[in-house]
Amino acid sequence: MSENALIEIRNLHAMAGDTPILNGIDLELHAGEVHAIMGPNGSGKSTLSNVLVGKPGYEVTEGEVRFRGQDLLEMDPEIRAREGVFLAFQYPVEIPGVSNSHFLRSAVNAVREHRGEEDLDAIDFLSLLREKMKLVEMPEDMMSRAVNEGFSGGEKKRNEILQMLLLDPGFCILDETDSGLDIDALRIVANGVNQMRSPDRAMLVITHYQRLLEYIVPDHVHVLSGGRIVRSGGKDLALELEEKGYGWITDADAAQPPRTPKADSNAASAGS
Amino acid sequence: MSAAFESLSALRSEVLDRLRDGEADWIGRLRDEAMTSFEEQGFPTRHLEDWKSTNLAPLEAISFERVGTPEQNPVVVTGDGVPELRFVDGRLDSANTQAENLPAGVRLASFAEVRRQAPELLEGRLAGLASPKRNAMVALQTAFLDDGAVLTIDAGVEVDTPIKLCFSTSGDATSPASAAFPRLLVVAGERSRGTISIECEATAPGLTAMVAEFYLAAGARFESVQIQDEYAGRVHFTSTHARLERGASFDSLVYSLSPGLIRSELEIELAEPGAETRMRGFYLGRGDGHVDHFTTVDHAAESCTSDEEYRGVLGDRANGVFRGRVIVRPDAQKTDAHQSNPNLLISEHAGVDSKPQLEIYADDVRASHGSTTGQLDPDALFFLRARGIDARAARLLLTRAFAHKIVDCIENERLRASTSTRVDLALATLDSDVPSGVGGSSG
């Protein structure tokens, strides 16, 4: 592994409940890179993103993840977020009674405090918020509403990207951000993500379809199957998958059973 | 015979001459009959259906040394132009009271003054709704009738500023046990409008037993905001009664924030067609607290509406009780009655006992009720943490959102703001190490 990788995932094994899902993931991302992870349903894509942000319910049984050289898996979820790991959720939760602007300001100030920066007062926060809202074409009334409550699918995803823009993370994970989006919403979301591309930042774009990658063009594409990366390539790999489907890769992979910490009977039925 | 019973009986004999001095005979008789009624009934026990979930043993064990003796401790009043009566140990603290700034047609006076100088204001109303015979704690309160407040608003008069009543105690946690028995009577004339705020903030051990009666004439609109925010060693009893005539509207909002033993009763009679009531309650159980909300709404006439929502947050080892009785009498057609009681348990040692009780004797009725008990949504907690908000702050944010549904519905803006602050202060004391649906990291 090179010394300056922003994030290094090494031989990562993880279980959801009693089921092994990730069976030895090796991946490294450098600052400035955008990687895409593609794969069929149940290949472990969402589990990977959930494990990276510390969602309860998963157990890492083997391997490690280092973020800027630090042991990521040792950190509580809020510390990971403050250190700069951000997941745009596939299904953002609704939080009745908590206004979106109050939530966003609490989050921004939690991250700023961790970085040793001063809290933003209401006025400074508002001007930052307005600036970022423009990038995702978000109407102002969505700030006074409760977090994601009554938002359409597209509005929720735009709200996720808005959070990403505000928190300014070093490592962004986008989990099926394209799912449920019409073409206009997809364009807005992709535009927000592309604003975030920078030499200091790495992105992991998880998607089932190639469509999103027309808007967010990756540097590298990986195919996940059976909880392992079974193929890596350039952006053309995504086009090849679009043309041929996943069968030609996963069939080849099926000949070689996934490695599991304990070779138990559940291994074959692993799914996320 | 319990320590409380004996000590209160003895204290009553001591103060009785002072109480009777200069008052109308019928009030003295009411007080004595109430005492007889209390002696017959004794303190309520858990054998009684209405007291099944609340044990008054901690109250019975108290040996009272003082009752309703005002002390000349100065009470700081934050004079913001709001008419305000301040009570210490249940008696008016006249030095710190301002009953000016009231519009014509509004009278606010101490109960002690009214029962001596204008007893006709009380006649036919005092104890007309809160019956000593049916309720031993009401009997005890009535047996000590002394001070409190009487508010009357003439027909057609509208008062925008809230009228504040503050009940505090002299002394602190180390003081000997004292009892206070404040009494309230509110008479709102036809088409009148008013708002009252009743705050109890005792700092000494003992008992606060308050009885309030509201009479709303046709078309009157009244909002009552009660805050129970007393020291943990104080037992709090409140029995609030309201009777609504044709088209009257009564909003009752009660906030139980004390970490001690609370029994809070609310009984609303929708006596004539078109009357409507909104009943809102929030209770926060902390420490070893026990909060019992015992509510009744009686649809006695047609086309009345009741809308009840009590929300509870129970932490530490606290216990919450909610009883919501809805009676729809045979003549009360076109009744609209809704009730809900969501509870949030934020500690595994906390508990709640929720009992909706619908008694419907009419057939053209819309009625619904729902009671839920749950924990903070683990997905929402994780979402907040994944945005950098620490677990404690995330729990507080979600708990606050749950509670504030009952704060945001206060109509009077000034009261909404002050209540919001008070509820937030109480929420901020919740145990920070309470386990929740979200564990640590997956690593």
Write a structural description.
The complex is a heterodimer of chains A (272) and B (443). With 272 residues, chain A is of the alpha/beta class. Helix content of chain A is 37%, strand content 28%. Chain A has a single domain (5-265), classed as P-loop containing nucleotide triphosphate hydrolases (Rossmann fold), CATH 3.40.50.300. Chain A has helices at 45-53, 77-83, 100-114, 122-135, 141-144, 153-167, 183-196, 211-215, 236-244, 247-254; strands at residues 5-16, 19-30, 34-38, 58-67, 70-71, 85-88, 95-99, 146-147, 171-175, 202-207, 220-225, 228-233. In chain A, helix 6 (153-167) runs parallel beside helix 7. Chain A starts with a strand and ends in an 18-residue tail after the last helix. Chain B has helices at 3-20, 25-41, 57-60, 111-117, 136-143, 378-385, 391-404, 413-427; strands spanning 66-67, 84-88, 91-92, 106-110, 148-153, 163-168, 178-180, 183-188, 193-200, 206-216, 221-228, 234-244, 249-256, 261-270, 276-285, 290-299, 305-314, 319-328, 335-345, 351-360, 365-374. Mean pLDDT of chain B is 91; it is low at 71-79 and 433-443. Chain B has one domain. In chain B, the strands form two sheets. In chain B, strands 1, 4, 5, 7, 8, 10, 12, 14, 16, 18 and 20 form an eleven-stranded mixed beta sheet that branches. Chain B is built from eight helices and 21 strands. Chain A binds chain B through residues 14, 50-51, 53-60, 71-78, 80-82, 87, 89, 92-98, 103, 106-107, 110-111, 114, 146, 163, 167, and chain B through 377-380, 382-391, 393-394, 397-398, 400-402, 404-405, 438-443.
Taken together, the total number of domains of chain A comes to: 1
Strand-residue proportion of chain B: 35-45%
Number of strands of chain B: 21
- Determine and state the CATH class of chain A: Alpha Beta
What is the subunit organization of this protein?
Answer: heterodimer
